[in-house]
Structure formats: C-alpha cells, structure tokens
C-alpha cells in the first residue's frame, strides 16, 4: 500500500496531513500526485468533490512554489466563493509545519475588491479565484499572471454551468503558452472537451476515478415514507428524536427552503435558510452562524450548500430528493466528516420511492426504510 511519502510528498506536509487525519492516499491522489510532482504537464482528472482532489493538486502545487518569487506562480479557478475559501484554507493547513513562507490568497466576487487588491500587493504565491473576479482584477491591473506556471480548473463542469465560459477563455488565452493546465471535473461534457482541445496538450495525462468512491463511506442511509402533506409532521418527529444535535436539511427550491425554515422557526427551532436569493452578506452571516454552532439547523438548497464544510453534523435530511443523483452524494457527505459516523435520511412520498431506488442503484448503496 503506497503512502504519501512514496508518492513524493515531503516530511513537513506529511506531518500536516497526519494532523488532519489524512493518512492513506485516495485513488485520485495515488494516480495524480506522482505525475503532477514529476512532469506536471497537462492533466485531466475526472473526479468529484469528496474524492480528495484538492490535496491531489494542492500538494504538488505547494512543492512547485518558489518562495523567493513574490508574484503568483499558481492559479486555481473554482466556481464559488465558498469553494475558493475552502481550497485556500486546505492549502494553508498543509503548510502548517513548512519552514517556507508561501502564501495563498483567495479572491472571489461578492466581497470588497479593494481589500483583495490590497492583499494581492503582499507576496502571494498561489491565487484561488472565481473566474469573474479574476477578470475584474485583471482589468484593474491588480494581478500579475506573468509567472503563473500551473493553472488548475477545479470543478470545471460547474464553472461552465454557472456561465463562466467567456471568462475561462480569456484567462486561458493569457496562461496557455507558459503554464501547465490541470483540469478537474466530475463530468466531461462537450464544452469541457472543447476547452481541452483549445487549451490543453493533446497528450495530456487523463485519469478517471470511480465517481462515487468518495471518502465518507461511514454514512448510514435511511428513508421514511409518508404522504406529501405529512412531511412536516414527519420532519418534526425526526428532529425531536435528535435533541440538540446539529444538522442540515435539503430542499429543492429556494421557496421550499425559505418556507421550511419559517416553519421550523415557528416551531421554536434555531434554524435559518441558505439559498440563492440571499445577498452575499446574508449568506455569509448564516454560514458563519452555522459553522460557529450558533445555529442548530440549516435549511439549504443544493446550489447554496456547495462547498459548505462544517464539522460535527449529526444528520442530513433530504426533505426533497435532489435533482441529480450526484447531489445526493454531496448532500450526504456533509455528515460523517473526518472519520465520524454520519446519518442521512430521506423523507419521501410514495411517488418518490422509485427515484430513491435509482439513487441506490446508481450509487451502489443501500438505503434502509425506517418504519
Ligand atoms: P476534496 O475532495 O478535496 O473536497 O476532499 C474532501 C475531504 O476529504 C476534505 O475534508 C479533505 O481534508 C479530506 N481528505 C482528503 N484526502 C484525504 C485522505 N487521503 N484521507 C482522508 N481524508 C482525506
């Protein structure tokens, strides 16, 4: 069994990984790290969130940084503010025992650009950015991409579905000749294929990992069946059984999330909704309250909860089944973090049962009925 040290990762990073309870490389890490550390030419990794891909590209990036050069040498593009912050946070944690001064800066929309401009004037080695904000910064000449040697497109499919194609083209036109491009995506639809053809080497290394081989396997999946109109009652009954435990409830639409949070608040639960209609400031406030444990229950839509990294959640409730099967994995992965056991429960009406069956089939999991 290969260790991180076998993959070429140096001692101080291994100490940091140990502290994060990251001991055994995952499939994408085994396949990507040796290549990215050695040759590091263009790379296409088909892997989704939860497979450990951040470390798979993050560790080779940190190894490749020259601390003496004070302008950005690596650029990581990611679809949302939360993901940018999360990636930057992970990289920062990896450097904890390193004696080099390497700095990671996250820049994203919905936050004050002046502050980000100021921060970028400090020595910065790795920039994690949303494509739109990076373009803004480029137009203001607040960022220098002349020393970028690695560009990562993280969750490339999500960036495209959020409408960032034009921005990606502009950025890749600047970087393609002097940088290696490492693309990570859960799926490779036509538009990604065209990015690969336009901007990446024809002999780019390609790696695919089992889509559902996510790290958090220690999740118990359950479901209850009731009539549609009985769902609120069923949810209250479940929440009562959970006492002071903290958890996340998923709804399909913004309106559903808003209404359900209202119902919970009316039922004296310490709850808030997180959805796309909130201003960035409000979203941050809700996220912060939830992370700081001031909020017990968060009701969210799939998009709003992307990248939400919270610890010690006892349960995840699927109040509505997700639109896409992979969302079920994303949702459930919010519990059972860092080696803890988690619990994922779907509250379904009769007509949702077949959907639940297909989730089971596609993900190769068993969802047990609670009677
Ligand atoms: P990612 O797919 O990069 O979003 O990673 C998902 C989570 O898995 C993060 O919280 C990582 O800290 C954690 N993680 C990454 N690599 C490993 C590993 N080899 N073993 C256990 N956990 C890991």
Explain what this protein looks like in three dimensions.
The chain is of the alpha/beta class. The chain has 2 domains: 11-210, Rossmann fold; 215-369, P-loop containing nucleotide triphosphate hydrolases (Rossmann fold), CATH 3.40.50. Helix content is 40%, strand content 17%. It contains 14 helices and 14 strands. The strands form 2 sheets. The protein has a 7-stranded parallel beta sheet, with helices on both faces. Strand 12 (315-318), helix 13 (325-332) and strand 13 (342-348) form a beta-alpha-beta unit. The longest helix is centred in the first third of the chain and has 14 residues, at 81-94. It is globular and about 60 Å long. It starts with 10 loop residues before the first helix and ends with a strand. The chain binds adenosine monophosphate. Adenosine monophosphate (AMP) is lined by residues 20, 22, 24-26, 29, 49-55, 215.
How are the elements arranged and paired?
Blueprint: H1 11-19, H2 27-38, E1 43-46, H3 53-64, E2 74-77, H4 81-94, E3 104-107, H5 113-120, E4 126-129, H6 131-139, E5 150-153, H7 156-161, H8 165-175, E6 180-185, H9 190-199, E7 205-208, E8 219-225, H10 231-242, E9 247-251, H11 254-266, E10 271-274, H12 280-291, E11 297-301, E12 315-318, H13 325-332, E13 342-348, H14 353-363, E14 368-369
Parallel strand pairs: 1-6, 1-7, 2-4, 2-5, 3-4, 5-6, 8-13, 8-14, 9-11, 9-12, 10-11, 12-13
Helix pairs in contact: 2-3, 3-4, 6-8, 13-14
The chain binds adenosine monophosphate.
